[in-house]
Prior knowledge:
The chain is built from 22 helices and seven strands. By secondary structure, the chain is mainly α. The protein has a five-stranded mixed sheet. Helix 2 (34-46) crosses helix 5 and helix 10 (179-204) crosses helix 16. It is elongated and about 85 Å long.
Amino acid sequence: xxxxxxxxxxxxxxxxxxxxxxxxxxxxxxxxxxxxxxxxxxxxxxxxxxxxxxxxxxxxxxxxxxxxxxxxxxxxxxxxxxxxxxxxxxxxxxxxxxxxxxxxxxxxxxxxxxxxxxxxxxxxxxxxxxxxxxxxxxxxxxxxxxxxxxxxxxxxxxxxxxxxxxxxxxxxxxxxxxxxxxxxxxxxxxxxxxxxxxxxxxxxxxxxxxxxxxxxxxxxxxxxxxxxxxxxxxxxxxxxxxxxxxxxxxxxxxxxxxxxxxxxxxxxxxxxxxxxxxxxxxxxxxxxxxxxxxxxxxxxxxxxxxxxxxxxxxxxxxxxxxxxxxxxxxxxxxxxxxxxxxxxxxxxxxxxxxxxxxxxxxxxxxxxxxxxxxxxxxxxxxxxxxxxxxxxxxxxxxxxxxxxxxxxxxxxxxxxxxxxxxxxxxxxxxxxxxxxxxxxxxxxxxxxxxxxxxxxxxxxxxxxxxxxxxxxxxxxxxxxxxxxxxxxxxxxxxxxxxxxxxxxxxxxxxxxxxxxxxxxxxxxxxxxxxxxxxxxxxxxxxxxxxxxxxxxx
Length: 553
């Protein structure tokens, strides 16, 4: 009977994967930072080409130093070399949504073969806000997290030096994928190891040294990535550290699984249902361990208790870790998912009746399809409203600079009011213009920060020179568009002005400044709702811009 459940689980996962792949066949999902990450990958792959990147070389520098973000960029750069920016992003998004579930399948199979189908619980958890914010490196790190867990379980079985080195290598891989995943993985492996040490000490009444020696291979594995960690920490020294959301806000967000909400309403209900389902499963598993622990093999009980210790550590980490640290922020939200991952890992160690197994599979399948359906509905709305930006791409010439002024970053409803989504798909979408023709987009939230491999040169940094943002500014608003100041400091003229949002709604100094900028410029395009407008500014002597042929896109 459990074989039938496993086969049904494979079928459900295959259907979910097919639906996701079909949704990406035309174009990738719209995300906040995704366009910037792929623009960075394209620059890593092509910035130093002999021809065609002269303007971009005046503005950017590529520094492939060791950072927790490096590996995904190398992966994306390789995909860009082999295909195109659009295809590369679709492949990366597919990996972000499916690789964690596949890796979880490997981990659960290592724990208990007939419960590997429980990995399907990871799929809806992967449809989270961080994916739609475009944090691809974090999403990939959740897949590596499960590979780390699988390697730890194999190490406990084989107790070989090879698995110890393999576990250390995976922890190092996690570090070069994303810092949040590395912290969670190291804390988890540390808690599992400490749990096994404590239980061996208590059961065998051996001294602490003897108990520790039983886990020397796991301890060695945790030591392997430490030199890389020291090197990466030296790059983020001096950045601010802020706790961020308070304990109550963290508890509410984690308990409701708010990280799965995109627009509220149905998303919130689905997320809460998944949270309550996993919480109830955890309570059942704990009660079962307490009642049947004496009848279970010592090795099985040790693994369950160690998993509970790792779960407890992940909860403490979620509440205690600073939200802003190491040059990045939203760390709390990146740690919300890991306690739920540990619940799934604990469930994999239990025995289920056929009725319970089918019930769990039906529940997680319903949640997954409901959340994916909500995602598709939201994506259709966003894609329809992004069509004018794709038309703009055909009107911008080669070797030109484009200044996006993002006045509205979210989709709107039929009345023109902004929809309360958790993502801002128009915020950095203009970065897609840099994928060809040596264009330079003068709005980039990430290229000013120290923990990315591509950065603006100081004399060209537009967020500071044009929008007057201070260092490490976390906001998204501005009240100045200082084109003259940028051109004077950088020596690079602004060729195009791209307004995203209706400028007629802007008042005060910003509205007046936009009217002064657009007055001498040539209008090239305006969407019917006036939410996307493109202007060609008067040509300056030092401009190398080759305007696109006039005409309709």
